[in-house]
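Quick one, probably user error.
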């Protein structure tokens, strides 16, 4: 995998890191104007970095779906929340497609561990939904449960793209569980928005890095060999 724009790779990486640091610091300092400006910019910069590295366009699509989710969740209200959750869901579908295209299927020696991991993710999903269900607003229960299923599938699918992507999937689960616990009015950590965004940004960077690594190391199909010129009377 060759970089598309080599000169832009490092500046975009550092710009993304700087934006994340400024955004997280603004959350701790409760500087609302800065958080509102920086939050929608986080994922487009990461998408630009992924493209500059030569990453799949679908990865940029997944990250831009995250930007849509960030923007609508920042607006507030049930309708904006549902639209934002739908945008994140579209991003998870993009990730699942990326894992299918660039991830590695478990070998014979890893199938047992993969099945055990799948069972663990299923138990985690069921336990989270059961615990949250009574405390969620009635109109959000079904959408949150459906989204949680897709999110868990994405986190499990990330195992195919390597350890870095797998960590990203788990961090995304943690971030969205923190959001759901706030909606359910559970006790929160100090500075809850900081921890939500910290785990979310780390998740997206880990997922993007995992996909970039998987795409770079995936075996390429052999190019078609040129056919010998046909001669008269020979098929």
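Nope, works fine. Designed sequence:
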């Amino acid at each position: 995998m060759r970089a598309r724009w080599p000169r832009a790779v490092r500046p975009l990486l550092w710009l993304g890191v700087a934006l994340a640091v400024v955004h997280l610091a603004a959350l701790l300092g409760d500087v609302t104007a800065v958080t509102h400006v920086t939050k929608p910019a986080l994922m487009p910069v990461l998408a630009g970095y992924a493209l500059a590295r030569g990453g799949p366009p679908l990865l940029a699509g997944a990250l831009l779906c995250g930007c849509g989710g960030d923007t609508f969740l920042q607006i507030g209200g049930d309708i904006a929340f549902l639209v934002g959750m739908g945008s994140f869901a579209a991003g998870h579908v993009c990730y699942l497609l990326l894992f299918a295209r660039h991830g590695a299927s478990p070998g014979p020696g890893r199938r047992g561990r993969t099945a055990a991991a799948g069972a663990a993710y299923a138990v985690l999903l069921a336990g989270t939904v059961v615990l949250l269900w009574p405390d969620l607003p009635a109109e959000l229960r079904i959408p949150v449960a459906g989204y949680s299923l897709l999110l868990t599938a994405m986190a499990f699918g990330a195992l195919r793209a390597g350890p870095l992507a797998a960590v990203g999937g788990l961090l995304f689960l943690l971030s969205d569980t923190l959001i759901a616990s706030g909606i359910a009015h559970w006790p929160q950590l100090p500075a809850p928005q900081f921890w939500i965004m910290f785990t979310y940004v780390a998740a997206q960077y880990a997922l993007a890095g995992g996909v970039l690594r998987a795409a770079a190391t995936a075996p390429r199909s052999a190019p078609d060999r040129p056919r010998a010129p046909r001669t008269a009377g020979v098929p």
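The chain is about 75% helix and 0% strand.
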